[in-house]
Amino acid sequence: MLKKDFLWGGAVAANQCEGAYLEGGKGLSIMDIVTAGDKNHPRRFTLNLESDAYYPNHEAIDFYHHYKEDIAMFAEMGFRCFRTSIAWSRIFPNGDEEEPNEEGLAFYDRLFDELKRYHIEPIITISHYEMPLHLVKAYGGWRNRKLIDFYVKYAKTLFQRYRGKVRYWMTFNEINSTIHVPAIAGVIISEKEDKKQVSYQALHHQFIASALAVKAAHDIDSDNKVGCMVMTTVGYPKTSHPLDVEAAQQYLRDGTLFFCDVQVRGAYPSYFHSYGIDIQMEENDTQILKEGCVDYIGFSYYSSNVVAHHMEGELCDGNIVKGLKNPYLEASAWGWQIDPDGLKYLMRTLYERYEKPLFIVENGLGYADEISEDGKIHDDYRIAYLRSHIQAMKEVVEHEHIDLLGYTAWGCIDIVSAGTGEMKKRYGMIYVDRDDAGNGTNQRKKKDSFAWYQKVISSNGEDLT
């Protein structure tokens, strides 16, 4: 059985739900200049707002004005925790100000107070694919070491202001995305530059910032628990060919474990030398990493892939990364291969390697939900996905005594897709009346999965029917 204080809940990100992109003294963030798109037409970073472009994050689902209504629905579902992020540009609109924006701080005070009313624990990501746009334009984003000081000042501001209100933090969302999509870290790389070198240098600055934030959080409040957050996927070898097995091993190591190694163990692993990257470090960096190890491992898991030493064949989409098609698995409408057994494999791997508490902070199914003739949203496909993954999670916890803090289903309420900018790619148990062009009433409506998840939580995962 799962422990009695297991943290059941849901997860969103500020930039995908809040809207109100210039209200309350907020400055422009890097996600405020990303256009809409779809699975066939990628989103664009425009650097400057274009009058003829649509930016779905500007209004999103207007959580900024609807948070009381939404939290009441989360409480009705039985949430014990709610994972969201803080918009950096609400607190420091440009990122380099001397003093924070009081209106922004006060908004999150109200949000956390509302969660407390319902005994819902906030799980807060400090930077979730979002940073002030000014830090990109004036400093070059995370390629510039000056960003460390700006981030640490921001983080300390949060730890001091919300002491006693927030205990669980994560420093960067899916920190490994910096390597795959550097623009998410505010790093724009020209064609003449070495993308790998620049992105890993930016990543190093994030590692240092994260470690300093962990130490500051512990110094300010010993009750704080700070985790990393890593995007994960499993890569199975295509065949029993030794080189395919080696490719799968490297896929997991280079795509997931490396990012945990640095943040959990507090040092670059010896195999990093094989990457052929020359990281510019300062004298105290190794000590900073050593003193800033995280307390737990937060991670996202949606799907798995197949890899080979020659990546030939049909490629499938996934959470930022692609892989070969697995003939033994079904895929979602967006091509993500559904694999609850991969979650078990991943949990075993992480816990055996690090023996640190785990936290599944993203897991869910994106689908183009539709309102039926009876006025309801029958999302049995989502229930089936969540059921299979929760069952897998339970099995590995019960059989192998893995310390798992909680489970937060991604996009518990429909939000703007980070990858495509669509609204029709819905993950939530709560439907929001808004379409890809920004039309709609923003009215909230329960899906069938709402009552199902309510039952799961009330039974502490025992009733998955």
Structural category is alpha/beta
Number of helices: 13
Please give the order of strands in the largest beta sheet: 1-2-3-4-5-6-9-10
CATH topology (level 3) name: TIM Barrel
Mean pLDDT: 96
Our measurement of the CA-to-CA distance between the termini, rounded to an integer number of angstroms, reads 16 Å
CATH architecture: Alpha-Beta Barrel
N-to-C series of helices and strands: EHHEHHEHHEHHEHHEEEHEHEEEH
The first-level CATH class name: Alpha Beta
Q: How much of the sequence is in beta strands?
A: 5-15%
**Low-pLDDT sequence parts:** none
Identify the CATH homologous superfamily: Glycosidases
Major β-sheet annotation: 8 strands, parallel, barrel
Instruction: Specify the helix fraction band.
Output: 25-40%
**Gyration radius from CA atoms, angstroms:** 21 Å
What general form does the structure show? globular
Number of domains: 1
DSSP strand count? 12
EC number: 3.2.1.86
Protein name: 6-phospho-beta-glucosidase
GO molecular function, one term: 6-phospho-beta-glucosidase activity
Keywords: Glycosidase, Hydrolase
Task: Name the features.
12 strands; TIM Barrel; hydrolase; single chain; 13 helices; two-stranded antiparallel sheet; 465 residues; alpha/beta; 8-stranded parallel beta barrel; 6-phospho-beta-glucosidase; GH; glycosidase
What do these coordinates show?
With 465 residues, this protein is α/β, with parallel strands linked by helices. The protein has a single domain, classed as Glycosidases (TIM Barrel, Alpha-Beta Barrel), CATH 3.20.20.80. Helix content is 37%, strand content 15%. The chain has 13 helices and 12 strands. The chain has helices spanning 14-17, 63-77, 88-91, 102-117, 133-139, 146-161, 177-180, 195-220, 242-265, 285-291, 340-354, 380-400, 448-458, and strands at residues 7-11, 81-85, 121-127, 168-172, 225-237, 296-307, 315-316, 323-324, 358-362, 404-410, 430-432, 444-446. The strands form 3 sheets. Strands 1-2-3-4-5-6-9-10 form an 8-stranded parallel β-barrel, surrounded by 4 helices. The protein has a two-stranded antiparallel ribbon with strand order 7-8. It has a two-stranded antiparallel ribbon with strand order 11-12. Helix 2 runs parallel beside helix 4.
